[in-house]
């Protein structure tokens, strides 16, 4: 449809009175606000207000039965002094370090492999994504059975080669790597989808020009593929790190923080403090600390990638 067909011309727009333009702009703003209103209400009710309430509760002592009592910042002192928050943060960071690099590398390698024209790639893509569709609790129960020291598949296979497998989830050294592996296995296919979308957006002309210049596969990956995948990599890392810091169900089902407190990550500790120990103030303080840690790590990731990523507007 042309401007002439609609009767709208540049001269007509330029000739609109300032008052009319102002009214039109206000109508557009009101329309946009009405469209956004449901989402804004959702963010306000389920995100902004709960965050404010948790921050306020972190300065009170409250056991759900008696009235809340203001205690200042003592909850923040107590959670590091008595409640093992420092240990839980370290264990959570250990889980993130085990989980994120392996999950990202496996997903990228799988995406690069399945981005080629190979037989049955469509079927393999579906198989790779299937674990993500299952609930973390179901996956945790399956891996619990796989790693059972007496009847599990892993130790049975090792036994065929004369190797005696350890009691995986009862070992302080093996428990966290096993939990991390369960999460890696579930989310590799999910992250692969984003990397495949990113790979398909890379212009093939660049690879052809690099081939003419004599560049090998290694050179093409680090000079073309990886730089152009940085926006995708940023998304995968940010969402993966946030999800890993908030891990709950997999750890709770597979080890419940054990053996000892070798897998005691922050979120289950918050749950136990709030709804087993009925110490809402301390649990709220833990939540605030975890929020600050996640926010700081996310800002660092954005700062790192923003200096090294360019975006093309087409």
UniProtKB/TrEMBL annotation:
It is found in: Cell membrane. It comes from the Bacteria. Residues 89-301 form the ABC transmembrane type-1 domain. It is a multi-pass membrane protein. One of its GO terms (cellular component) is plasma membrane. The keyword Transmembrane applies. This is Sugar ABC transporter permease.
